[in-house]
Structure formats: C-alpha cells, structure tokens
Amino acid sequence: MFRFFENLVDPYAPYPQTDAPPQKLFAFLWDYARPFKQLFVASALLSVVVAAVELGLIFAMGWVVDILTGAPDQVWEQHGTTLLLLAAFVLLLRPAIQLFDILVLNNAIMPNFGTLIRWRAHRHVLRQSVGWFENDFAGRIANRIMQTPPAAGEAVFQTFDAIAYAFAYVIGALILLGEADARLMLPLLMWLALYVALMRWTVRRVGPASEAASDARSEVTGRVVDAYTNIHSVKMFAHHDRELTYAKDAIEHTRQTFNVEMRLYTIMDASLVLLNGLLIVGVVGWAIALWMAGEATAGTVAAAAALTLRLNAMTGWVMWALTTFFRQLGVVAEGMQTIAQPITLLDAPGASDLALGKGEIRLTELTHHYGRDSGGLEKINLTIRPGEKVGLIGRSGAGKSTLVKLLLRFYDADSGRIEIDGQDIARVTQDSLRRNIGMVQQDSSLLHRSVRDNILYGRPDATEAQMIAAAKQAQAHDFILDLTDPQGRAGYDAQVGERGVKLSGGQRQRVTLARVILKDAPILLLDEATSALDSEVEAAIQDTLYGMMEGKTVIAIAHRLSTIARMDRILVLDGGQIAEEGTHEALLEKDGLYAQFWARQSGGFLAPDIKPDQDPEAAE
Predict the structure, then answer these.
(1) Residue 355: CB partners within 8 Å, gap ≥ 6?
(2) Fewer Cβ within 10 Å of end Cβ, the chain: N or C?
C-alpha cells in the first residue's frame, strides 16, 4: 500500500528544462508542482470531506443529546439502528477516509515534491557557469538547495492539511449553525471577520520577516562553511578568534531577524486568546439564551458548545499553519535568489559537437575584461599550429589564466573569437569542447571520494589496468598503494577528503595528472602543472609531461621557466597583450621581458620584485 502511493509520481521523470525559470514565487512553485496537480486536487477534496465528517459528528452528538431526553428503552427501540450505523461509520468509514487523506498527503505528495525540487534545482545550478559559482559562497548555494525543497513541501502540507481543512470547516460550521438557528451565525461571523483581520495583519509581516531570517541563516552557513573549507589557512595564520568574530556577526544578525519574527507570533497568540474568548461567549452564550427562551434544544446548545470549543482549539493551529505557510514561502523566495537565476552561458541554438581534426587553435581580436574597463585580455591575435607546444608566461594579472578560461568557455569573450579547427567555440556545445581538452590546474583540488573515483573522473569507462597505468605514468601508483583512511579503506579505495585535503600538495597534483593522462584529450592545458611538486619528483615527472604532450596541441602556463624552456614557442603576456614570442633561445637573444624574467628568477621562479597588475586574475 505504501509503495503504491509513494510511486504515484516519479520525481526524476524527464521534463522540459528551461534556461530562465519563472521569477514570480507562485509561478516558480507551480512550475515544480505540475506533476502533482491531480494529487493536489485529490488532497483538497479529501480535506473538505474530512472537515465535513468532523462537523457531522459534532451535530450527531447534539442529536444524541436530544434523543437521550426520552426513556432508555424507547431510545434504543426508536434509534438503535441509527446508533449502530453511526458507530460503524465512526469505527470503519471515518478512519478509512482519513487514512486515504493521510496517504495522499504524507506518502504520495510530501516525499516526492521535495525530492523533485531538490533534484531539478541541483540540475539547474550545475548548469551555471564557473563565473557564477565564483561570485557566491559554495555553502550558501548548497544551503539554499537544501532548505528550499522542505520549505516548499511544508507550504504544500499546510495548504492541504490545515488551510483547506479549516476553510471547509468554517464554511460547514456556518451552514450547520444556520440550520439550527440562523441567529447563531452572527457571533461566528463577527469572530470570523476579526480573525481574518488578525490573520491578514500577521501574514503580511511574517513573509518578509521569514525571508530576512532565512537569508541571515544562509549567510551564517556560508561563513561557517568558508572557515571549515579553508581551515588550514585559519590555523596557519592563527585566526581562530577572527573567524569566530566573523561568524558571530552573522549569527547575531540571524538572532535579531529571528527575534522580529517571534514578536509577530507572540502578538498573534495573545490576540487569538482574546478572540477565542469572544467566540465561546458569543456562540455558546447565545445558544443558552435561545434554550432558556425555549427556542433551541439542549442538543443545539451541546453542538454549539462542541463546535466553538473545537474552533477554539483549531484557531491557533490554523493561524500557526497559515503563518508557517507564509514563513516557508519566505524561505522559498530566498532560495529563488539562487535556484531561479537564469543560465547565462548557453550553447548557441542548434550548436553541434566539436569535430576535432588536427587541433589548430586560432584567436582573433580576442578581448575580455570581466565587465571592467581594464585587466584581462585586449585584442589578442594568435594561431597555435596542430601539435604545437606553446609556453605562456607573464606577471600575475597579465591575462594567462583568462586566456585558458576563455578557451574552455568558462566565460564568453567580450569580443573577438576563438576557433578550433575552424569552428567557433561559441557555436559548438560546451560539453563537446571540454571533452576534447585536458586541463591540469595549479589548484589541484580533488573530489571527496576515493582515489579510484578521482582518477576515473578523466575517463569513467576506463579499465582498472588503464587507470593504474595512468597512475604509474604520473608517478602516483606507489604512494597510492600506501594510503589508508579512517574507515580502513586502502590503496585506490581510500578516500582523499574534501578537496583532497588528506593528501599532500604533490600527491594531489600527481593524482590530477593521472586523471588527465587517462582522459587523453587531443588538446592539453597545463596551468602550473608541477607547482606543487618537489624538485626530485618534478625531475622524475618532466619526461612524463613531455610524453603526455606528444601528438597534442599544448598550452602550458608556468612561473618556473625551466618547465617551458623546451616548448616549441613561448609567449610573453604583458598588460593583456602578447609582448613577445619565440623559442627560448630566440627570446634570450632578444634581451627583452623574457630575458629579464630568466635573469631575475630564483630557483626557477619569476622574481618577486616584478609587481603584479591589479586584475581579477590575482592568483595566476
């Protein structure tokens, strides 16, 4: 039975993806809710039926009070069958109706609705560009992905479990009181008007207050995760107290926003107590007055009393449910700031896969400034021949990493174009472009998975033998065999920790190299590929790197000039433009910037007295 209801909606079913999700709250929710519309209708109808059953029971009890005024033997003789039917209804049919209502809401809607939102939201966010992720906290993005689905699910739950039920209950109460005596409707209507006014006052303030509190909580998560992710820097610079202060500011802001939210609930609760007192006195008092005047039966008084006491108990729950509904909508609205952002870096309409031939790369008037007036690249014209190995050097901020990011299409160029084998990379699919490019970055962070998973990330369909061969080629196999983790996993099964923190910098770099070796892409980008290696390991792996380059078109960024001296050609970037180009020997003879860098370098690095430009590429 449970499985039937749990499988009524498949949260992973195919759906039409959109690059620009709806920006209005209810349109955003409805976009996710489409697969559930039939279940929503069923849940709403069941809520009405359950409310009607409860109201019917209250007035059935009033009828029972009235018939008990007769002699006991006459009561059973005249009403025994009805009483038995009423008992059967209470014991059998009423539980069945409520069980069906609970199964639809708790088992068919709630688990699947949150899962569907989380799955689709994560899928949408993963399509965002690298630049989009660089502009936010990873912790805050993850927090919004995690907190939005349960908030949306809670809003749906309150809609059908409380709001629809309460609406049907109040309407039914008015009808039944009117049938007993129309005058009993007056105090209920007066109370209802005041209750709606209080509800309106509360919900208009709860939504914004909840969104502010949710945003504050996300800020706390972002700051805390930032500290945990960079714990080595925190400890190394002894900034424990500084990080506590940084987090405390956000935590205190969260407390203040939560205080504002809780004040609203205190005012609401106090007002409800007063209103409910008026409800009880108004309806029950009037019913007693009618009974004393001989215009109402004892059963009417009993039913009116039971109804008002039930409403009295229910009003707090309904108000809380309604404010919870709007509070959760506030959380959803805050989550939309991440989840509903449109995808800006898109494949061109009708984009085809990159058809790689020889591997020629041509840059024409390539310009990119990160939305600023300076920095980045300025009108670069360059042709890299198929199979050519090009070294790229320059001061920090000269534009080296910008060129690589544009080649991978992590950003779109401001102007100009990049062509690979005559195909504009802006007109081919991003996935096919990146499948044909192998990249070893200076920041050799790894996935928090096993060594095997990290290496196979380069080519998931590779065999075990191919994976081990790549590790051996990267001088990684021996140290991998010695790895263990706290769970007792060893060798290639050992977990490397978040961003590969359980490995040394050199070990991480060699696993990264193994991954790229396994990928075996025809175009190879090396961004300080040996920066984390000690001299002995670097010397051992130099031949591996040059072996990797055979038959590939290569662009290698380096501050350690000895690593690129054997390249076919070396480009010197300065101020976002190509200042010099040629072989190592030709550039030394030219006695320009490259010769200065070579003469000033210490231990194979660019000298520290060369000042970097102020540019977004501060860490190239």
Answers:
(1) 421, 423
(2) N
